[in-house]
Amino acid sequence: MITQVPQPVLEVHDLTVSYDQHPVLWNVDLSLPAGQLIGILGPNGAGKSTLIKSIMGLIPPTSGYIKIFDKPLQEVRTRISYVPQRESVDWNFPASVLDVVVMGTYGKLGLFRRPGKKEVQVAQDALEQVGMTAFANRQISELSGGQQQRVFIARALAQQADLYLMDEPFAGVDMATETAIFQLLQDMARAGKTVLVVHHDIHSAMNFFEWVIMLNLHLVASGPKDQVMTEELLRKTYGGKLNLLTQVTDLIRKQDFNPLKS
Amino acid sequence: MEDFLYFFTFQDPSITWVVLGITLLGIGSAYVGTFSFLDKKALLGDAISHAVLPGICLGFVLAGEKDPRYIVTGAFLSGALATFLSSWLKQNTKLSEDSIIASILSVFFGIGIVALTAIQKSGNPEVAGLNSFIFGNAIGIAEADLFLYGGLSLAILLVLSLFLKEFRLMVFDPGFGKAIGFPMKGIRFVFNVLLILAVVIGIQAIGVVLMAALLITPGAAARFWTDRLQPLLLLAAFFSILSGILGTYISFVLPQMPTGPWVVVFLSLIALLSFIFSPKSGVIRRFLARRSYLNKTHRDHLMKALFKAKEANREVLSLEEIHALYPFHKKEIAHSLQVLTKQGLVLQDSQGVRLSPQGTSDAMRIVRLHRLWEVYLNESMNIAPDHVHESAEQMEHLLTPELEALLEQRLNYPTLDPHQETIPRESHDA
């Protein structure tokens, strides 16, 4: 059940990704429509984060390619915004909430130019959108998990992009915050932005996403929520690792080179 | 005293130059080192500073004398080789980072010492001052050398201020930097060059063995005082300059004294004082916070005892009765009663001790929190009634009014705790 769309915002073409010699995503081929809130679902180790990271160019593909707004990534970087997993940074770093959110403006600033009044204003607006204005001068180590997550989302908003990629933005977030953030993301989608979210909770996925991608090492489904959130596809996604694919992966790891590399 | 005045009034132009040099060197190495410390790569600086020794020897052999240009170039190249090797080994072997750094440090330093010994045996009359590169000698720096070291320090500061935003990103979130299209590998490369340069400028004044301390300690000490990057850098630079000048002064007064070890002694002293006196995480601060908390719990317990007596219709408890409740704590009881009386929470007279109206209300709140927490543990966390007391003894001092309101709401204003004791509330609340 894979629905392709004409004039996609994002096109992933036959993407295979390996860590060292360990394939973690097999032949993912999908295209996504603009202006939607899109969820990426799948069990642990299904390759959800890997898909986002390869779209952002953080992991080189073993084979296949990605096009965003019908262009290669390098040409459209400033139109894409990225929220990494919260645990990927050291929150003891000496910085205020505002310092971190201002980093969202670095991409458009480019190298060597210092952020000025305009950048600080953009960051303040982003903080207001996530309801963190009162925390602007707070040291980041004093924040709770949910607040840290909102700071990261504010930084992404400060990037003022058209496509947003978010890696587990709801991990360690309480229910009230989750609902508030989801509403913000829905507003963004309504304003024509495309928001791609790695998510683990099927229940809230049912409520909030319009389009759903299901992964389990390979692409199980990609399409409008009503068509793909079926019992059969969910079982395919969450029904454990595929035995045969795991054995093939082990076989590839034992080779002296990566045979999948094109 | 005469020496002190002579040194610090800068009558001697050569002293002025040395102090200026040590100041520039201090700022440069503290800035670069603070980033390296925040990046948790402190050991790399140590490895590089040991690894420049073979380069120093090579420079000396090629020039045939102590020409600073040859020595600085040799040191830089040898430091660069060590840095490159450490990242190459990390990428291409399964060795862990600490073993790689330990091996590079010892291999390079070993080669350096062998070369140094060989040069000293060669009979070259120029060899005399070469030993000062091991532990440093700021006073021995010639004016011409100072221009080279000072110029390099200025260059470091210039590049660093240009790259401030990029280095911040490199340390905090390099993945994000890559995602927004910044050349993170290039930025890391520039930083490594600065790190090697920061080591190289210190070899004459501080020496290769201890240069790492001048990189890391200022930032580590300053981290106790501030949570912001810019004040952190400034404070680190200040600590570095201060100990640099003091160390230089010592080796001026006592000519046999190497500068490096003395700089490190002063730096360590600053770090130790920071560790003890830091207002947010210092030893003293934590000790005082703990003591004031213990005192508060003790006062809370006294008020609770008075309140429970009141529940049993006894308004006044004699001092003897209170002492009997908390044997072996006479001194604490006296102190707590003194504070509580001063706060107007208890009243003392010839009969004994009783709670004031405000004291009754405060004590009631402590008992209420205790019993509410017991109900919460029992009902919401399925903990047996005989297992809830210990936890409630701790939580009664901690729970905030907000959490109290939340507990009341969640538990729907219970009247009895798991031991069938009444949960006390103000009459106008009920």
The number of domains of chain A is: 1
For the termini of chain B, the CA-CA separation is: 76 Å
Structural class of chain B: mainly alpha
Number of strands of chain A: 9
Question: How much helicity do the residues of chain B have?
Answer: over 70%
The Cα radius of gyration of chain B reads 32 Å
What's the arrangement of strands in the largest beta sheet of chain A? 5-6-7-3-8-9
Overall form of chain A? globular
Q: Which strand order does the major sheet of chain B show?
A: 1-2
The chain pair with the largest interface is: A-B, 30 and 26 residues
What is the chain-wise order of helices and strands of chain A? EEEHEHEHHHHEHEHEEHHH
Q: Key terms for this structure?
A:
heterodimer, A: 262 residues, alpha/beta, Rossmann fold, six-stranded mixed β-sheet, three-stranded antiparallel β-sheet, 11 helices, 9 strands, globular, B: 430 residues, mainly alpha, ABC transporter involved in vitamin B12 uptake, BtuC, Arc Repressor Mutant, subunit A, Diphtheria Toxin Repressor, domain 2, 3 domains, two-stranded antiparallel ribbon, elongated
